[in-house]
């Protein structure tokens, strides 16, 4: 499949099991307090074998194509861990993960699994919103002299804040699908009304501006 076909397939998959759920007229509230017309829980994909296969195979194909010299597949904690494990299995590569912070006991590891300085890794993230947590993982890996080839994620909001942040840190992120494709598919398949698309895109463009709710 080409890039457009993969984006649409994964968008349909996520919508079908409500891993991505759109509610433009009754927004959710994020932990930050921001009102959002979208709720995303990609952990639900783990319970849907067909959809899980679509995602893991697509992630593996991207890594094999873009980063053939990868040594280790790295997951972000916690949502990226199972995807990294499955993709590592598909590619017959070692797998590890990075904690959000170091353990306070034992060896006090933050990086789990065997990853050596000088090795090349690809980071798997389930969802990119602002990009902050993923970028923190990449920075920590780089501090340990580990070569991060890029990030591969299931879904990105495509917010300008995250785009700018990744560019500033010279990190390449490739997502299987994105907010705009989700919105297009959702309207085409009746999950939302055609007139709701404007609200959703307005939110994506500036999540802090809640004026989209009244549109």
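Q: What amino acid sequence fits the structure above?
A:
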């Amino acid at each position: 499949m080409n890039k457009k076909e993969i984006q649409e397939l994964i968008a349909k998959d996520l919508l079908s099991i409500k891993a991505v759920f759109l509610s433009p007229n009754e927004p959710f509230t994020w932990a930050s307090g921001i009102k959002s017309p979208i709720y995303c829980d990609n952990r639900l994909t783990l319970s849907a074998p067909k959809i899980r296969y679509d995602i893991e195979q697509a992630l593996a194909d991207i890594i094999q194509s873009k980063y053939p010299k990868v040594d280790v597949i790295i997951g972000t904690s916690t949502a990226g861990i199972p995807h990294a494990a499955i993709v590592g299995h598909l590619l017959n590569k070692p797998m590890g993960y990075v904690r959000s912070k170091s353990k306070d006991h034992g060896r006090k590891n933050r990086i789990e699994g065997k990853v050596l300085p000088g090795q090349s890794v690809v980071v798997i993230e389930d969802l990119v919103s602002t990009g902050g947590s993923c970028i923190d993982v990449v920075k920590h890996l780089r501090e340990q002299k580990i070569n991060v080839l890029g990030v591969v994620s299931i879904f990105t909001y495509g917010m300008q804040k995250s785009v700018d942040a990744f560019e500033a840190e010279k990190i390449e992120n490739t997502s299987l699908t994105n907010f705009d494709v989700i919105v297009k598919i959702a309207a085409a398949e009746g999950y939302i009304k055609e007139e709701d698309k404007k609200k959703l895109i307005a939110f994506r463009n500036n999540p802090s501006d809640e004026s989209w709710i009244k549109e």
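Q: And what stands out in the fold?
A: The first helix runs from residue 3 to 16.
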